[in-house]
Amino acid sequence: MSRDPDRLRAALDGIGVGGIGVGGAAPPRTEVVGADAADPDSLRSAFRGASQLFLTMANGPAQVALETNVIAAAAASGIGHVVKLSAPGAGGPDSPVAIARGHHAIEAALRESGMRGTLLRPYAFMQKLLLLAPGVAAGGVIAGATADAACNYIDCRDIADVAAAALTRPEIAGHAYTLTGDRTYRHTQVTDLLTGLLERPVRYVDLPGPELHRHLTTTARMPDWLATHVVEIQRMATTHPEAPDGTVARVLGRPPRTLEAFLREHLDLFRLRPGTSHGPPRPADLP
Predict the structure, then answer these.
(1) Run of H or E residues at 157
(2) What is the pLDDT at residue 89?
(3) 131-153 pLDDT per residue, tens
(4) Are 218 and 54 in contact (CB under 8 A)?
(5) CA 69 – CA 55 distance, rounded (Å)
(6) Longest dimension (CA), the chain
(7) Which of 26, 47, 230, 253 could form a disulfide with 77 if both were Cys (CB 3.0 to 4.6 A apart)?
(8) Model confidence pLDDT, tens digit, residues 77-122
(9) Which helix (H) or strand (E) holds 41?
C-alpha cells in the first residue's frame, strides 16, 4: 500500500526471488494498492478483503495520528491481525524518547481495537550506519553522544524475516518481541571494525548532546524533531544499558546477521573517493 502506487510498482518490478534485482523480467509478486494514511476512506477501500496487516511507517511528528487512523480503518474493515513495527521503550508511557512514547500510544490503540496484535520492537538499524559513511570516507570519523555505552544493532532484513514469520505462523503471533543483533557494540568497537576492514584509521569523537543536535540541524540539515530524536536515543543508551536479545534466533532458527558482515557488504560506501583526501575534519564537519 502506498500513497504513490506507481512509484512502488516500479521499485518492485526490479526485485526478483530472494530480493535480487533482475530488471523488468521479474514476475509480479505483490498486488499494489493506493491509499493515504490521512484518508480513512482510501484505507478502508485498500483493506477490503484483507485479513492481516503489516504496519510500518516512517517516524515523524504525525505518526501517532496516522498509525491510529490505519488501525481504526483496519478494525472497521475486518482485519484480524496486525503486525506493528514499534520501538524499544514503547512498553511504557515514560520513555525518555518521544518517538517511543508515540509508539506506546499506538500500541495502546491497537490493543483497544480488538484485533490481535504482534509488536516488533527493534533496536538501532544497521542500515542507519550507512548515513555515517560520508564522514568516514572523507574524514575517518564517526561522532555521537553515547560515551562508552554499548548499543544494540539489527539488520532490517532480520526484522523483515521476523515480520514474515509472524504473518505466516499463527502460533507466534500475538506477542511483543524485542529484536537485536547477536551482540552490542560501543562506537569505538564500530570504528575498530571499520579500521580493520578499510585498512586505514577510523576514530570515534564523542560530543555533548547539544553540540550533536546543533551539528545535525545545521551541517546535516536534519529537521529539529529528527535531530532531537537522534540525541534522545543516544542519551538513552547511556542511561538504560542495552543487552542483546535472542529472539531473532528463537523465531527464525538461525542467528541474526552480524554487524561485521553488514559492514563488509557495504564497505565501498565507506571508502575514500578518488580525488578526495581524508585529513582531520574541522569541528563543523563532524557528524
Answers:
(1) helix 156-168
(2) 85
(3) 889 989 999 999 999 999 999 99
(4) no
(5) 11
(6) 59
(7) 47
(8) 999 999 999 999 887 888 999 999 999 999 999 999 999 999 999 9
(9) helix 40-47
Q: Which of 77, 85, 95, 79 is nearest to 40 (CA)?
A: 77
* Residue among 71, 40, 53, 60 nearest 1 (CA): 53
The label of the residue with cell 530524536 reads: 229
- R_g over Cα of the chain: 20
The residue whose grid cell reads 496486525 is 82
User: Cα(125)–Cα(266) distance, rounded to whole angstroms?
Assistant: 14
Collect all residues with Cβ–Cβ distance below 8 Å to 174 and sequence separation of at least 6. Answer: 81, 116, 117, 118
Distances (CA, A) of 128 to 6, 31, 131, 139, 237: 26, 29, 6, 18, 16
Burial 155-190 (b: 16+ CB within 10 A, else e): beebbebbbebbbeeeeebeeebbbbbbebbbbbbb
What distance in Å separates the CA atoms of residue 34 and residue 260, rounded to the nearest whole number?
Answer: 38
Cα 155 → chain centroid: 9
Give the β-pairing of 184-186 and 150-154.
antiparallel
Three-state secondary-structure class, residue 112? helix
DSSP β-bridge partners for residue 185: 151
Residue 124 to residue 127: CA distance in whole angstroms: 9
CA 62 to chain CA centroid, nearest Å: 17
Backbone φ and ψ of 279, nearest 5°: -70, 170
> What are the backbone dihedrals phi and psi of residue 117, each rounded to the nearest 5 degrees, phi first?
-125, 135
Cell numbers 476512506: residue: 41
